[in-house]
Amino acid sequence: MNKAIIAIGAAGLLASACASDPYGYNNGSNQTVRQGAIGAGLGAVAGAIIGNNVGSGNAATGALIGGLAGGAVGAIRGSQADRNNQQRYRDNRGNYYYCYDNRQDECYWENGQRRY
C-alpha cells in the first residue's frame, strides 16, 4: 500500500508541475495542460484503487497506467477546449488566421505556422 501512496503522490506532483502556462493563453490557463493534469491525477487514483481491488495487489502499476490514460484523455479534451477558445480572423488577402482571446500578438495561420 505504501507504493500506491508514493505513486499517487508522484503523479500529483508531476501533474501540478504542468498546471500553469508560461505563454499566458486564456489569461494564464491552458485547458490542454489543466485538463491533462486533472485527468492524470484522477486516472492515477482510479488505477491504484482498481489495481489493488483486482486481486493482483499491484496498485502502483495500476496508478501508473491510470495516470497515463487519464492524462491522455484529459489532454485531448483540453486541446479541443483550447481550439474552441481561439478567435478566427481574416487578413486583407482572404487568408484566415487564429489568435487566442482577441490577442493579436500570438497568432497562427490555418496550417499551424506562426503569423508574425
UniProtKB/TrEMBL annotation:
List, alphabetically, the InterPro entries matched: Gly-zipper_YMGG
Its source organism is Brevundimonas staleyi
Coiled-coil segments on the chain, per record: none
Answer whether the UniProt record assigns the keyword Mitochondrion to this protein: no
Keywords, sorted A to Z: Signal
UniProt protein name: YMGG-like glycine zipper-containing protein
DNA repair among keywords? no
Could you tell me which residue ranges the YMGG-like Gly-zipper domain spans? 30-78
